[in-house]
Amino acid sequence: MSLPRHALPEGEVLAGLPPVREIAPSEVAARLESAPRLAVLDDDPTGTQTVKDIPVLTTWSVEDLRWALRQNSPAFFVLTNTRSLSAQDAATRNREVARALHEASRAEGIPHVIASRGDSTLRGHFPLETDVLAEELTATGAAPDGVVLVPAYIEAGRLTVDSTHWMRTPDGKLLPVGESEFAKDATFGYTSSALPDWVEEKTRGRVRADTVLRVTLADLRTGGPAHVADRLRTLRDGATAVVDAVCDDDLRVLALALAEAEKSGTRLLYRVGPSFVRARAGQAAHPPLTAAELGPLRAPSPHGLIVVGSHVSLTTRQLDRLRESTADLAEYELDVARLLDPADRDTHLREIATAATAAMATADTVIRTTRTVVTAADPDESLAISRSVSAALVETVRLITAARRPAFVVAKGGITSSDTATHGLEIRRAWARGTLLPGIVSLWQPVDGPAAGIPYIVFAGNVGGDDALVDALALLRSAARRR
């Protein structure tokens, strides 16, 4: 498929589309009331940023999964953090979760379907994760007829039109995602923007582009749920389908179609971006949490901790803007070169933790890694470096929060927010209570462990405008006046 190598005006990309078929969230919620529970295996914590009042697990014991299934919620998240793992470890983790989920589902008598939640800019272990999950489902007698790929993330401007995935640029244009900085990822890079071509590229030709079922906006908007369900019923033997989406109504049409197809016996496995979960859960796009709502959630401490590990250029711009606009802010840098030196690592992180702990008594405090990305020639080595740096960052967080309880913790970056949640704050179970900004920046309310009572803010590295970090901190500060 021939695509531009530069951004186009959004109106040009969206010109001539069929009119939106409006579907109320309540219609989806009613239709799915008796549907299987949606278990979202999230490869980093940022998938929760489109939903409200949804359970989140960072561990996957059978008992934890049974707890999630018992909650009155159409979906729940299991944070696998597989994007930070090697392919072998990611496969092992998916197997563990799938097997425990099968046992928990059987024990509770509550059926489930699985969504593998990946990055809306197409980074991650695909097709490895869906391959492994398909194998595990097959072993339980529930072999999937198809894998449905829906990467759209509406608020962040990740849209799929005519089976091509686009991302909105800061100047409001749309860029084929294969031309973005994310496509050049050291571990998960790719070249294709047309999703059938991307599937062929990532499967190394095992799935040819011309065999991928394309569900277009014409199917969704003109054909409607019954037509799309008929198309999905044609999937056999784990075949791949890719789905367009420009707005939530498109995804709600898809949700109704999936419910109809599944009710008639079609078994589906999903690989999705964040917006699919909201549609499938029958939720509307919720406005951000207000200062009044945040007030009771904020811990009774004067200042919070902001942890920045993401290295994408957007995060660096957001951090620069925060520094420029916030005079009463303490900031400390973890030097990656020192963290990678075994002789110096522990001394360096203890120095930073001690200084940041003291600073948090009088100011909101940032700890960040060096902005220069350290990579290796081999993708697995680059991932190992990222994991090593993240482990040091998380250890620093653990030292700080053990010495001084923060009013809140903001974690910037996918791997950073996952490791901070599971290892830095030891969160096992939480509720995603909503967002700080429209459709992005999720707030978790931990329900157990040492972090209970400390709001945890999951802030992806690749979302928001340049002022997003400034705006999030301003809202958290305003909540202090509402306590």
Strand order of the largest sheet: 10-11-6-12-5-2-4-3-17-18-19-16-13-15-14
The number of domains: 2
Total helices: the number is 16
Largest sheet: number of strands, sense, barrel closure = 15 strands, mixed
The backbone outline, from C-alpha atoms, is: globular
Q: Say which CATH homologous superfamily of the largest domain is assigned.
A: Putative sugar-binding, N-terminal domain
CATH architecture descriptor of the largest domain: 3-Layer(aba) Sandwich
Low-confidence spans: none
What is the CATH topology assignment of the largest domain?
Rossmann fold
Termini, distance in Å?
A: 56 Å
Strand content: 15-25%
Q: Provide the residue-averaged pLDDT.
A: 93
Rounded to an integer in angstroms, the radius of gyration calculated over CA atoms is 22 Å
Total beta strand runs: 19
Structural class by secondary-structure content? alpha/beta
- The percentage helix is 25-40%
CATH class of the largest domain: Alpha Beta
Walk me through the structure.
With 483 residues, the chain is α/β, with parallel strands linked by helices. The chain has 2 domains: 8-280, Rossmann fold (3-Layer(aba) Sandwich), CATH 3.40.50; 291-480, Molybdenum Cofactor Biosythetic Enzyme, Chain A (3-Layer(aba) Sandwich). The chain is built from 16 helices and 19 strands. It has helices at 10-14, 25-31, 62-70, 87-108, 128-139, 195-202, 217-232, 248-263, 274-280, 291-294, 313-325, 336-339, 345-359, 379-403, 414-424, 468-480; strands at 8-9, 37-42, 54-57, 75-79, 112-117, 146-150, 158-161, 164-168, 173-176, 213-215, 239-243, 268-272, 305-308, 329-334, 364-369, 409-412, 429-437, 440-446, 456-459. The strands form 2 sheets. It has a 15-stranded mixed β-sheet with strand order 10-11-6-12-5-2-4-3-17-18-19-16-13-15-14, sandwiched between helices. The protein has a 4-stranded antiparallel β-sheet with strand order 1-9-8-7. The termini are far apart. The mean pLDDT is 93.
